[in-house]
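Notes to self after the Tuesday call (sharing in case useful).
The group wants a holo model before anyone commits to mutagenesis around the pocket. I volunteered. Ligand is oxa(dethia)-CoA. Logging inputs and output together so the record is complete.
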Amino acid sequence: MTAQAHEENGTGSDYAATHLNGHYSEAEAEQPMLDKVQPPCYAQIIGWGYEVPDRVVTNHDLEQVVDTQDEWIRTRTGIQERRVVAVSEETTASLGTQAARKALEVADLHPARVDLVICATSSPEHFFPATASIIQDNLGLINAGAFDLSAACSGFVYALSVARAQILAGDAEYVLVVGSETLSRWVDWTDRTTCVLFGDGAGAVLLAASDVPGGVTASVLGSDGSGAELLTIPAGGSAAPASLETVSSGAHYIQMDGRAVFRFATRIMADATRRVLDKAGVSISEVDLVVPHQANKRIIQHSVLRQLKIPEDKVYVNVHKYGNTSTASIPIALCEAIEEGKVAPGDNLVFVGFGAGLTWGACSVKWSVPIEQPESTWWKNTQRQATYQAAAARSMWKRAVRRIYSQVEPRAMARRPVRRPEEEQPTP
Ligand code: UT7
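Result:
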């Protein structure tokens, strides 16, 4: 139970005294030591969902746009097609909202119970506000904090690690972790070295505090900023604010040294997988499924498959359908692996990713919850629909009230009499 939930139950002060200030209350101090021991806490994935745009762009479509060939793309990357947002209403927040909504539905959790939403993204809705805040509002997560996490394609693994830490620290009970991207809007569609690689989509998981052993059991995170320029969007930040020159030179698009990133990725994916398994006390032979970042099939083959000698049927690959969806690639792949019956309670999973930064990360997961989803009844669906409609109405109402205030307040200020300094009362 979170501090907030305790507050709602009228036990807020006890909770704060015991857990936040690090002091035991007198009543607790008199109890035997055993009662003070907290039940073991684990961070379990209890919900999952993904969303991809309907529009499919095949390699043959790209042959019409740039000097490329389906054969080149398939043999060098494994990609056959990708999804691309088609209309302006499809954004990083809208895809992320849909994915998160599905994760809540799988867990059958009311949105008001979520404590935190983290959106890992490399293509946020805006610099600020955070895309996570928009998702929070869209879903009516009225008790949740929200922030974006930037670690490029490793972002989902980073966010999962942060979410786990929030839960294990007792600061959150339910955390939504979203990876969402519309990188097609940052791609130079005349640059064949990058435009064939990326795709749009979103995936989400819901983490919950649990006393059932397992869940996200360990994580490793890494960064080497000396490789920052290998994969970057050079302009648009404080180093090179938007100007006519940055726009005309294409400096707002993704630029990449593909070969260098490839070399780094093949080394680091195997290394990070090894290290996280060591931390979790799981041997490579005990791994049931690796869900790697889906950037390039050859990277996966050269790293987890060859270096770690993990058999092909234990490594999930769907890069042929979606291309590289950055932070969304691991949660989308996880959802599809679940749909295909490749995940079962008791399984040892590894999520491993790499990306710009350069960054990398891995999480080990002991899957400990049933895969069966609750039956979706007519009544349940109606209830959910009503909850989301209420969230939309609430958001509209708050915006309207703010608009009214912004119009009324300046007039009220103008009417307020101005006091001369001698009329001011001295402050006691
Ligand atoms: O989330 C992290 C994101 N980034 C990555 O994961 C990227 C990692 N790198 C890669 O996946 C690979 O390096 C690429 C797929 C980007 C490129 O594959 P490669 O085997 O490393 O090709 P290359 O860059 O060495 O280029 C080989 C040739 C070049 O021609 P020349 O110089 O040998 O004549 C390229 O110009 O292939 C050419 N080429 C293409 N040809 C047809 C590059 N892109 C294309 C293309 N179609 N789309």
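Two things stood out.
The chain has a mean pLDDT of 89.
Residues 122 and 152 are 5 Å apart (CA to CA).
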